[in-house]
Structures are given as C-alpha cells and as structure tokens.
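Fig. S4 source data, part A: sequence.
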Amino acid sequence: MKKLKIFKILTITILFTILFILTFHLPFRSWIPIYTYYGLCSLIILTIILIILLYIFKKFFSFDIKDCMITILLSFSINIFFFCMVPVTIERSISVFMLNEMNEKDFYTKKEIENLFIEKYVYEYGAFDKRFKEQIATGTISKTNSKYYLNKNGKKLLKKFKFIKNIYNIKTPILK
C-alpha cells in the first residue's frame, strides 16, 4: 500500500510538471511578458488547482492530509527549484549566450567574444532595454519629466539584496 501511495504521489508530481511545462506554450503567455513572473504565476495557479483537485479526489487517491501536503510540496518545490535554476538562467544568462555564440565557430579571441557580447547581447538582443523595462514594470524605477530614478521600492529591494549578499557572503562588485 505504501509503494502504491508513493507511486501516486510521483505520478501526480510528474503530471504537474508536464502541465507546468505546457503553460509556456499557451497563447496567453504574452499576457505576462516578464518570463520569470509568468512562470511563477503559472506555478502558483497550478498549485492552487492541484490543492483543489486533491481535496476533491483525495478519497479516489486514498490520500490523507499528509499525503496531500507531501504531493503539493513536492510538486511545487521541484518545479520552482528547476524553473529558477535552469529556464530562468537560460533566458537571462550571459554565460549561456557566450557558450552558444562560441559554438558557431572553432576559435575566438577573448576580444572577439567581448565584442560579440556588446554588439549582440547588449545592442541587438536589447539586454539593457529589456532589464530596464522590467524594472519599470516591477515598480523599482520611476520617471519624472524625462529622467529616471530609483524609487522607494527600488531602494528597499536593493537593501534586501545587500543584506542577502552579506549573509551568503557573495563576492560581487555589482552590489556596493
């Protein structure tokens, strides 16, 4: 009986993961243009749906409340971890860009790679513009007249980032 419950929990978790992946191919994906936020919203909505379905069908699965909680936590945790570590990294990563570009020919000088980064990643792919628009959309940067500034929300977020940088001992020149 215990092996059957484990099998059911894992099956539901796999189906949850498949549904989560499918949400990225839906036509309304453009409703939330920031990839990370779209993924998080999809994950939260799917988790709520899973909670409702487990509540309705818990007798069918022979689940008690503990089994339901394990299924929900496992499904959410695996997907949030993988989503943040891999797809979000692929979508935003300079390293992934660099590896992909270097795959185009056998050898590059360091300067060629640096120029590729500036010309393609920053300008052609609009990396700066994309991040800048994200910060405006998330409410950390505001505009007055024709100038932009870090608003109160942005300062709070920056303070949190600095705190996390310190407690995790992150060595980066990005946060002063």
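Fig. S4 source data, part B ends here. The beta strands are 141-144, 147-150.
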